[in-house]
């Protein structure tokens, strides 16, 4: 397990500030002017409520805090959420809100918040109370590609839910950001969903790590979805070839294979007003046995053209070692230390290439 001590973090932080100063003197880094924040799922093991998350965001000196699960809040009543909003505003922090599947036929859908429509409506009301201009939602996961009718049927069902609730979103001033989540949709499929639902109130939560799960590089994913992006949940990745396909392992920012300077230069052109939110989920590799008939069942129309570029990229990668707790260490404590280390290093790296609007 990577265990970054406080002294080491402060050293990295000082280096990041020096790099930012250099970037400013030379006219700005790759992401100069882009807001920077984090997705709370990056530190999920902490089990922190809104106040603690706001405090951590203040410590990191970021611009945004993306809370992507309604269960983080003790109460979803308007008054309780307004209190959280005021706390964030005092820290000059923009809150963004997210929740989970709104596709009633997805294998991942849960009735925790009622029907799909009721879930979406609740999320919209909560976003309005928090002052979040967006609500992140998901369709499901890669398992939905194997369901009756395939991913096309799940997209159709999701579009119906979105359309039925358009007026509620418009009246609240909240746009819906659908994520490319856990291999459910390729960027071109997600693009079709947004266009079908109505891009006047529906857009994208861009997840660079999840792009590899749908067989595309992060940069190609950005090119396809950039004009639709409302929010982000980004992380670095390593990818390498295996006997039957490729393997992917997510990493802290700057420790994988993504050329972030190129990525954020293009990001700034396509969606300059969108915040860069980091969602580190590192330490575990996943193999995609693309060269097997079993895998192809999820892609009955054939692999997307983007896979060739991803496969070429994988040829340049090397296998990564999984993260492991120290011998005898409590797993919960290990997860907490690891997740804090990953997000702290990632935010420091992002600042070192010019991201973030706070000194």
TrEMBL record:
Alphabetized Pfam families for the sequence: AP_endonuc_2
Region forming the signal peptide: 1-23
One of the record's GO molecular function terms: isomerase activity
InterPro entries: IolE/XylAMocC-like, TAT_signal, Xyl_isomerase-like_sf, Xyl_isomerase-like_TIM-brl
Renumbered residue ranges of the record's region Disordered: 314-339
Segments crossing the lipid bilayer: none
Keywords linked to the UniProt accession: Isomerase, Signal
Domain Xylose isomerase-like TIM barrel, residue spans: 72-281
Start-end of Basic and acidic residues biased regions: 327-336
Domain of life: Bacteria
Protein name: Sugar phosphate isomerase/epimerase family protein
């Amino acid at each position: 397990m990577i265990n970054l001590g406080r002294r080491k973090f402060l050293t990295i932080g000082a280096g990041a500030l020096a790099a930012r100063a250099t970037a400013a003197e030379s006219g700005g880094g790759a992401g100069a002017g882009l807001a920077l924040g984090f997705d709370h799922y990056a530190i999920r093991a902490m089990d922190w409520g809104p106040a603690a998350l706001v405090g951590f965001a203040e410590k990191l000196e970021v611009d945004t805090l993306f809370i992507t699960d309604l269960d983080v809040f003790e109460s979803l009543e308007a008054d309780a959420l307004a209190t959280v909003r005021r706390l964030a505003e005092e820290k000059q922090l923009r809150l963004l809100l997210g929740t989970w599947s709104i596709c009633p036929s997805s294998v991942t859908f849960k009735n925790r918040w009622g029907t799909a429509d009721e879930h979406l409506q609740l999320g919209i009301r909560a976003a309005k109370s928090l002052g979040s201009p967006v609500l992140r939602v998901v369709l499901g996961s890669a398992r939905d590609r194997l369901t009756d009718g395939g991913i096309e049927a799940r997209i159709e069902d999701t579009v119906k839910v979105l359309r039925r609730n358009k007026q509620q979103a418009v009246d609240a001033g909240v746009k819906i950001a659908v994520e490319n989540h856990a291999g459910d949709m390729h960027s071109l499929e997600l693009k079709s969903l947004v266009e079908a639902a109505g891009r006047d109130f529906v857009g994208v939560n861009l997840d660079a790590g999840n792009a590899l799960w749908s067989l595309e590089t992060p940069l190609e994913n950005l090119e396809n979805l950039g004009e639709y992006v409302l929010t982000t949940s980004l992380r670095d990745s390593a990818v390498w070839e295996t006997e039957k396909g490729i393997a992917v392992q997510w990493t802290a920012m700057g420790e994988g294979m993504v050329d972030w300077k190129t990525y954020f230069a293009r990001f700034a052109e396509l969606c300059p007003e969108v915040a860069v939110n980091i969602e580190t989920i590192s330490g575990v590799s996943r193999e995609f046995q693309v060269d097997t008939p079993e895998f192809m069942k999820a892609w009955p129309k054939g692999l997307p053209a983007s896979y060739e570029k991803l496969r070429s990229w994988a040829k340049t990668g090397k296998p990564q070692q999984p993260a492991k707790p120290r011998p005898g260490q409590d797993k919960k404590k290990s997860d907490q230390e690891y997740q804090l280390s990953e997000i702290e290093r990632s935010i420091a790296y992002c600042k070192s290439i010019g991201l973030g609007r706070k000194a």
